[in-house]
Specification:
By secondary structure, this protein is an alpha+beta fold. The chain has four domains: 59 residues, no CATH class; 124 residues, no CATH class; 68 residues, no CATH class; 61 residues, Arc Repressor Mutant, subunit A, CATH 1.10.10. 55% of the residues lie in helices and 9% in strands. A five-stranded mixed beta sheet has the order 3-4-7-5-6, with helices on one face. A two-stranded antiparallel sheet has the order 1-2. The protein starts with a strand and ends with a helix.
Length: 338
């Protein structure tokens, strides 16, 4: 199994030993002792899951996720959190979290997707967490809530928190620590963050440290590419999916990775991809959203997507969808009424 920051487990240990439970009982069945946990580096996800299982049984408490979440902030995530903390805006901090999380091959997968309403931050678990997935989901959502509130100095009370698990018996306690509406039994766990939060400036932004974070990201992508044939394709796709149109050009993306356009183009080509194809795929997703969920004219949509000519937009859309934008909108409207 992959490794995880020891911070989460330290919170559990501190909480339970504070209740008079011996540390050896909390750590039973793991490869850890108290000194190793408190002074060492990352621990295995397996050990952490065992600690959570022990904590639930010893403390007779199903609310461990909420307990951990109260303490979670970007510092919990180590290097990933440092990149988030030094980002210029909320959106860029969340983009950094997605990119670093994927490159660190963590047990948790994060997908950041921009849409007409704002930003959807989807959380997936890539390993079997047994009966503790709920705790991980709760603490992850609270960490993201704490992150946004810390950067903005505002209460995040107009997001939507979606959980993939059924409503727990203690759900009434969510209102004490989660500041936005909560839904259960959803398709996946996510935070739906309204648009007006995304470009808020962070008072913690540090230009030199942010540049270092971007340079580190470039190095990680290059290292990751040695064992993953689509490292650059994944990066560009995730970057563009988390942006609003008009999408960033090749020059700005290459600059952020400290690469020349030619080098980035070559590496994408080696992966069987291209900037143009990735960009057009993401633009098509936006086009579908505009056509299905707004009454904007085709010309207005084309301009919003960055097309200089509406005819070019119509042509590109037909090539992907097999019909014109107008025909697509009519079909979508008919399907909604059916």
């Amino acid at each position: 199994m992959e490794n995880i920051s020891p911070v989460y487990a330290r919170f559990v240990l501190r909480e339970l030993t504070g209740r008079g439970i011996e540390a050896s009982r909390v750590l039973a069945g793991t490869t850890l002792d108290r000194e190793r946990l408190e002074t060492g580096g990352d621990i295995s996800v397996g050990d952490f899951v065992t600690i959570l299982d022990n904590g639930r049984k010893l403390g007779d408490d199903e609310r461990l996720g909420l307990m951990i979440g109260r303490h979670c902030n970007p510092l919990t995530l180590g290097p990933v959190g440092a990149a988030m903390a030094n980002a210029p805006t909320v959106r860029e901090g969340l983009q950094a979290m997605e990119n670093y999380s994927r490159l660190h091959a963590s047990y948790i997968g994060v997908t950041v997707q921009s849409n007409l309403e704002g930003l959807s931050i989807k959380i997936d678990f890539l390993q079997d967490l047994r009966d503790t997935e709920r705790f991980h989901s709760e603490s992850a959502v609270m960490m993201l809530q704490n992150y946004v509130e810390t950067l903005t100095g505002r209460l995040l009370d107009d997001a939507t928190y979606r959980f993939s698990f059924p409503r727990p018996e203690y759900a009434a306690e969510y209102a004490l620590c989660m500041h936005s509406p909560v839904a259960f039994d959803c398709k996946y766990t996510s935070i739906e963050l309204p648009r007006h939060w995304l470009e808020l400036k962070s008072p913690y932004f540090h230009v030199d440290m942010w540049r270092q974070a971007q340079l580190k990201l470039s190095e990680k992508i290059r290292e990751f590419g040695a064992n993953n044939e689509r490292a650059y394709t994944q990066y560009l796709t995730s970057l563009m999916q988390s942006q609003d149109p008009p999408l960033p050009d090749l020059t700005s993306i290459a600059d952020s990775l400290h690469l020349s356009e030619r080098t980035l183009t070559r590496r994408l080509k080696q992966e069987g991809a291209s900037y143009r194809e990735i960009r057009n795929k993401v633009l098509n997703t936006w086009a579908r959203q505009y056509l299905m969920h707004t009454s904007d004219s085709v010309e207005s949509i084309a301009a919003s997507l960055g097309y200089q000519d509406a005819a070019n937009f119509r042509r590109a859309f037909r090539n992907r969808e097999g019909c014109s934008p107008r025909e697509f909108r009519e079909r979508a409207s008919t399907a909604d009424k059916a």
